[in-house]
């Protein structure tokens, strides 16, 4: 059974890895901004850029899922 579902397990593991990495990046950025007294506008820009990076991975996953279900990829 493990060999049959190995690709699914790898995909889930990789997605969880990205989730943890983005979480740690967000926490470290938050810590650095708190220590350096970054203005509110700077914080908004930094978090927006971090969100766009996360959104790119989410969009890639959704597009890949749709294409695989339609038989394109």
Automatic annotation (TrEMBL):
InterPro entries the UniProt entry points to: DUF2788
Alphabetic keyword roster: Membrane, Transmembrane, Transmembrane helix
Highest taxon in the source lineage: Bacteria
Transmembrane intervals: 12-32, 44-67
Name recorded for this polypeptide: DUF2788 domain-containing protein
Species this protein is from: Colwellia maritima
